[in-house]
TrEMBL record:
GO terms for molecular function: LPPG:FO 2-phospho-L-lactate transferase activity. Required for morphogenesis under gluconeogenic growth conditions. It is found in: Cytoplasm. The keyword DNA repair does not apply. It comes from the Bacteria. This is Putative gluconeogenesis factor. Its main location: cytoplasm. GO terms for cellular component: cytoplasm. Keywords: Cytoplasm. Belongs to the gluconeogenesis factor family. It holds the Pfam family CofD.
C-alpha cells in the first residue's frame, strides 16, 4: 500500500494472467491504483514470441509486452508508447511480423536480465505499475484433450504447446506445465505476499489463467496471502473452453488448484444468466458471487474497461486495507 499525491492510501493490487485478458484487467486497474503489479505467464510459443524463443531462447516476451502496453499512462506520451510497443514490422525480411515491443524487451533482457530489464523498460516508457514474469524459466503447456479423433471421441490425446492448446478443436480436459515444478520469480512471490488484493483472470482459461496456479510456489503464495482474492470470469467461453458454462470454469479452477480459496468471483451478467450451479460452485470456494454488466456496448465478448474498473473499485472500497 502506498499514498497517492493527496496522501490517501492506495491498495496494493497484483493481477495475474496473460494476453488480452490480463491487458483488459490492467487497463481497468490502472485507473484505480498506482500500486499495481502484473504477473505474467511465460508459456507463449506462437507468433513473434515463438520465433524469438526458438532463435534466442529464454522467456517469450509477447504477453509481457501486452502488459507493459496496458500499463502505459492515459496521456499523449503513454498513447505513443502503447502504439509503438504493439506495432509490428511489415517487411519481406526476417523482421516481418515481429512486434517492436518484443524486440525492445529482448534488448533490455540482454542488458539487465529478466526482472530488471522489464523494470528499466517500464521506467523508460513511464508505465503505471510494474510487470513481472511468473517464472524465470520458459514453460510449455501440455494438455489432455478429448474429441480430436472422430472415430474414437473418448480417446485422450496429449497436445503440447500454448498455441496448439489454445487453438485445438478438441475438448481440453486438463493441463500441466513442463517442467512441472518451475521456480517462481522471487519478486512475484514478494508482490503477492505484500498485496492487498490479488486478481486472477480474465483470459484464456487453460493457457493464461490456470498456469499461475500450476507453479507450486505461486499457488502456495496466493493461497496463504493476506490479500483478498478476486477471480474475474470471462465474458463467454472461448476456443479453449468451447461450450463451458460459467460454473464449469469455476469447476476447472477447483480441479487444478483444490487448495485455492477465493473471496470474490466477478461475473458478467450475460455469462452468469440462467446458471443453476454457479452460485453453489462459487460458495464452495468460500467466495461471494458478484454479477455486474461488464460487456462492451458493441456486444463483443470483451470487458469494457470503465465498467470493469467500476466493479473492481466497488469491491476494493468495500474492504478495509
Amino acid at each position: 500500500m502506498k499514498k497517492n499525491g493527496f496522501g490517501a492510501s492506495q491498495p496494493a493490487v497484483v493481477a495475474l494472467g496473460g494476453g488480452h485478458g490480463l491487458a483488459a484487467s490492467l487497463t481497468a486497474l490502472r485507473q484505480i491504483t498506482d500500486d499495481l503489479t502484473a504477473i505474467v505467464t511465460v508459456a507463449d510459443d506462437g507468433g513473434s514470441s515463438g520465433r524469438l524463443r526458438k532463435e534466442i531462447g529464454g522467456l517469450p516476451p509477447g504477453d509481457l509486452r501486452m502488459a507493459l502496453a496496458a500499463l502505459c499512462r492515459n496521456d499523449a506520451k503513454g498513447h505513443a508508447w502503447r502504439q509503438l510497443l504493439q506495432r509490428r514490422f511489415e517487411t519481406e525480411g526476417p523482421l516481418n511480423g515481429h512486434a517492436v515491443g518484443n524486440l525492445m524487451i529482448e534488448a533490455a533482457w540482454q542488458d539487465a536480465g529478466y526482472v530488471y530489464g522489464l523494470e528499466m523498460l517500464g521506467q523508460m516508457i513511464g508505465i503505471k505499475g510494474r510487470v513481472l514474469p511468473m517464472s524465470t524459466v520458459p514453460l510449455d503447456i501440455e494438455a489432455q484433450v478429448l474429441d480430436i479423433n472422430p472415430i474414437s471421441p473418448d480417446e485422450t490425446m496429449t497436445i503440447r504447446g500454448q498455441h496448439d492448446v489454445a487453438t485445438t478443436k478438441g475438448k481440453v480436459n486438463s493441463v500441466r506445465l513442463v517442467p512441472e515444478n518451475p521456480p517462481a520469480c522471487a519478486q512475484s512471490l514478494e508482490a503477492i505476499r505484500e498485496a492487498d488484493f490479488i486478481i486472477l483472470g480474465p483470459g484464456s482459461w487453460f493457457t493464461s489463467v490456470l498456469p499461475h496456479l500450476l507453479v507450486p510456489e505461486l499457488a502456495e503464495a496466493i493461497s496463504s496471502a493476506k490479500a483478498k482474492r478476486i477471480l474475474t470470469l470471462n465474458i463467454t467461453s472461448d476456443d479453449e473452453t468451447a461450450g463451458f458454462s460459467a460454473a464449469r470454469h469455476i469447476e476447472v479452477i477447483a480441479e487444478h488448484a483444490p487448495m485455492l480459496r477465493l473471496d470474490y468471483v466477478l461475473a458478467d451478467e450475460s455469462f452468469a444468466a440462467d446458471e443453476t450451479h454457479l452460485l453453489s460452485f462459487v460458495t464452495s470456494l468460500g467466495a461471494e458471487l458478484i454479477v455486474a454488466d461488464l460487456r462492451m456496448r458493441d456486444g463483443s465478448a470483451r470487458h469494457a474497461p470503465l465498467r470493469l474498473a467500476s466493479a473492481y473499485s466497488e469491491l476494493i472500497a468495500s474492504e478495509e486495507f
